[in-house]
Structure formats: C-alpha cells, structure tokens
Design a protein that fits this description.
CATH topology: Alpha-Beta Plaits
Number of strands: 12
Number of domains: 1
Radius of gyration: 17 Å
Strand content: 15-25%
CATH architecture: 2-Layer Sandwich
Distance between the termini: 29 Å
Number of helices: 6
C-alpha cells in the first residue's frame, strides 16, 4: 500500500505559541508577510482573546495549513500540473517552475488562506536568505504553500513544525499504516477534519 503521510494536531495540547509557524518560516525561508502555517484562535474576536465573560471564559487554537488532501481540488483545476500529489508520499506539492500564476488553485481550494501568491520578487524575512538549502525556491508570480517539509521527510526527518512544537501537540506519520502513531491516535481519540463535506479527504487531523 502506498504511503499517505499526514499530521495529527492535539488541540488540547496546543498552546497557540506560533512556534510551528516560525519554525516553518525559518526552515523554508518563506518570504516576509507570508505564512504557510497559521494559528487561529477559537474564542473572541481577536487573537488570543477568549469567548464568554469572566470567570466563564473559553479559548482554544486551530493550526491552519495546506490539508494535503487525498482528492485535492487544486490538482484538478491547475492547467499545467503545478500542484501535484506525490505518488510515493501522498504529500501535495507545488512546482514553482511549472506555475503560471493563474491562481485557479487558490480559488478552488476550500481552505482559505493556506496558499499565497508572490506578486513581487520574494524578499527573505531576514536580511539574508536562511533555512534549508533543499527547501523549494520562491519565485515571483507563483503560488506557494506548505510542502509538509518534503525535503526533510525524504531525508528521514520530521517536518519542522512537528519537530519544533514545544507542547508536543503535533504528530507525523503514515496514515495508511495502522501501527503508526498518527493512525493509533485517530483510532483512539475523538477527532475532526476541516470541511469534510467538501469530500477532499484532508490528511490533517485535529484531536479534540
């Protein structure tokens, strides 16, 4: 059976620290003002604000990234095959050399904000390029998104967001392997997927 890598996020452990977002940004040398991982507050109207009135307050977090779907809409609509599902890992990749900037993938994807478009020549978040030299290049007039750190995975390492999480709220593995940690977690814990009614088969699971 082919691999299907996925990520399981324990929302009860997530502390909303944005470490996953920052490690992702550094590892992939993501341009300024662009985030492949975001942390959304489930609570009040603003970031890190709870819902309710004292002392009955409630707040939690949902991390948002490409869902690496089993049936990705982005792949179906792209006229040049820039987004594609890697047959060996199940990771949805984005080829900047093929991308023509039509942004059909952004329009088709039901998960708002998981893709970005480089209108101008990408500028590093720091004064100089950093990150892993094996990470994808960033090009003007192209769409980009989370790659689940495929360059690290191919070297036998964990995605940067998983390795860097201080709360140990993220887990990575093969969802097609019933003995993997991720498969055992979703088999034994209550969980959810984002927008399952869209029938895209997201491979990011959230333990609740």
């Amino acid at each position: 059976m082919a691999l299907q890598y996925g990520i399981v996020v324990d929302t009860k452990r997530c502390i909303g620290c944005w470490t996953c977002s920052v490690t992702c940004k550094l590892e992939n040398n993501i341009p300024e003002d662009v985030w492949w991982n975001r942390v959304l507050t489930i609570g009040g109207k603003g970031t890190d604000t709870p819902a309710g009135e004292w002392p009955n307050l409630k707040m939690s977090y949902v991390v948002m990234q490409c869902q690496h779907c089993s049936e990705p809409e982005c792949v179906k609509v792209c006229p040049v095959g820039a987004p594609h599902k890697d047959p060996e890992t199940g990771i949805v990749m984005q080829d900047p050399d093929k991308c023509i900037g039509c942004r059909y993938c952004i329009a088709a994807c039901p998960y708002t904000g998981v893709r970005s478009f480089n209108w101008d020549e990408p500028k590093p978040a720091m004064e100089f390029p950093g990150g892993n030299s094996k990470a994808p290049d960033h090009q003007k007039h192209t769409v980009e998104k989370c790659t689940m750190c495929a360059h690290r995975v191919l070297d036998g390492e964990l995605p940067a967001c998983v390795e860097g999480c201080p709360a140990r709220a993220r887990f990575f593995g093969d969802l097609n392997d019933s003995e993997s940690d991720v498969s055992k977690l979703i088999a034994t814990r209550e969980h959810m997927q984002l927008l399952p009614e869209k029938e895209t088969g997201p491979n990011i699971y959230y333990l609740v």
